[in-house]
């Protein structure tokens, strides 16, 4: 059992201003730990901290609610939810002096894992008020919307579209794996035109992924260790397959952690923009949610979002 919050014992960063904390609680995320989060936040409020809880509705514009909070003076915007909720809160923080906090309640919680934010909801809440550091990370802009983890066209978008919320709640990340196995045998390659910082490329592929998160990239491609949230670049991975029958070898490569055999995964690096066009109209996913169809235009926002992370040891 965790100790009761104590304002006199809490330590803040030396340069921290008095904080007004606005928390967006998405009760529809993950395994349903929103009640635990509310209870812990109320304990910190009782200890003397300025905390506003906002329960978002199923169709609410979370980013707009968070922007209103920043305009009203909140300088810590907390996303208590999954990676989609985190991205929406990040949209309100980018380009301001406000800081993003994360309380992971989702299925994958990729951004939290990438930043070593505690996955235990109570511990993640406590981090906001106890000793911590702030880290500036990159973001991805698509038509004015903000994303932190990834963009994907092909298998990942079909998985995001077809994985039922109830399955994610029951089975967690395994629900994505099950959906992915179902999609692999049915998705045929498409012809892609990919322009990276103005340089055009053409590929036959079943997946084009733009990764900002190292955890996401490593889950998809275990041999890929270079991607970071703060590296000032977008990493574009193209699964260059001729037919869906090439996927068993790709899966074998993933399982053994090597990309030395064909079919390979092509890696391109962008410092500014990526445009993806396709001969077919394909769904596009961003941070695990389908946001539209191709073409896709993405722009890098280097160091655009400041996030609460654990203090270094």
Structure keywords:
single chain, 313 residues, alpha+beta, six-stranded antiparallel sheet, 10 helices, 29% helix
Q: Helix and strand layout, with pairings?
A:
Blueprint: E1 20-25, H1 34-46, E2 50-55, H2 62-71, E3 76-81, H3 83-93, E4 99-104, H4 110-114, H5 121-129, E5 132-142, E6 145-147, E7 150-154, H6 155-162, H7 165-171, H8 174-184, E8 190-196, E9 199-205, E10 207-211, H9 214-220, E11 234-239, H10 247-256, E12 265-270, E13 273-278, E14 283-286, E15 289-293, E16 296-310
Quick description:
It contains ten helices and 16 strands.
Q: What would you say this structure looks like, in words?
A:
The structure is a single chain. It contains 10 helices and 16 strands. The radius of gyration is 20 Å and the shape is elongated. It is 29% helix and 33% strand.
Cα-atom Rg, whole angstroms?
A: 20 Å
Are there runs of 5+ residues with pLDDT below 50, and where?
11-17, 163-183
- The counted number of beta strands is 16
N-C termini distance: 23 Å
What general outline do the C-alpha atoms trace? elongated
This entry's quaternary arrangement is single chain
pLDDT average, as an integer? 83
Query: Treating each run of at least 4 consecutive H or I residues as one helix, how many helices?
Result: 10
Major sheet details: 6 strands, antiparallel
């Amino acid at each position: 059992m965790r100790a009761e919050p104590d304002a006199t014992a809490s330590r803040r960063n030396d340069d921290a201003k008095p904080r007004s904390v606005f928390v967006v609680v998405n009760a529809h995320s993950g395994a349903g730990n929103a009640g635990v989060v509310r209870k812990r936040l109320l304990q910190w409020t009782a200890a003397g901290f300025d905390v506003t809880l906002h329960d978002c509705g199923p169709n609410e514009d979370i980013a707009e609610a968070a922007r209103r909070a920043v305009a009203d003076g909140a300088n810590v915007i907390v996303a208590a939810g999954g990676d989609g909720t985190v991205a929406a809160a990040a949209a309100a923080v980018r380009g301001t002096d406000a800081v993003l906090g994360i309380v992971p309640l989702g299925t994958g919680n990729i951004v939290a894992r990438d930043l070593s934010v505690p996955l235990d909801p109570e511990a993640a809440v406590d981090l906001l008020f106890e000793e911590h550091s702030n880290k500036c990370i990159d973001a991805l802009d698509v038509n004015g919307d903000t994303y932190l983890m990834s963009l994907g066209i092909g298998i990942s978008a079909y998985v995001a579209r077809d994985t039922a919320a109830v399955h994610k709640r029951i089975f967690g990340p395994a629900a994505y794996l099950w959906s992915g196995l179902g999609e692999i045998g049915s998705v045929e390659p498409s012809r892609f035109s990919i322009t990276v910082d103005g340089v055009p490329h053409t590929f036959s592929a079943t997946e084009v992924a733009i990764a900002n998160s190292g955890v996401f990239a490593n889950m998809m491609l275990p041999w890929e260790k270079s991607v970071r949230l703060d590296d000032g670049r977008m990493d574009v991975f193209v699964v260059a397959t001729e037919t869906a029958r090439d996927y068993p070898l790709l899966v074998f490569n993933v399982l053994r952690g090597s990309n030395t055999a064909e079919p390979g995964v092509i890696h391109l690096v962008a410092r500014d923009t990526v445009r993806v066009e396709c001969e077919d109209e394909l769904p596009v996913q961003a941070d695990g949610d389908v946001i539209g169809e191709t073409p896709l235009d993405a722009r890098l926002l280097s160091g655009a979002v400041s996030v609460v992370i654990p203090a270094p040891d």
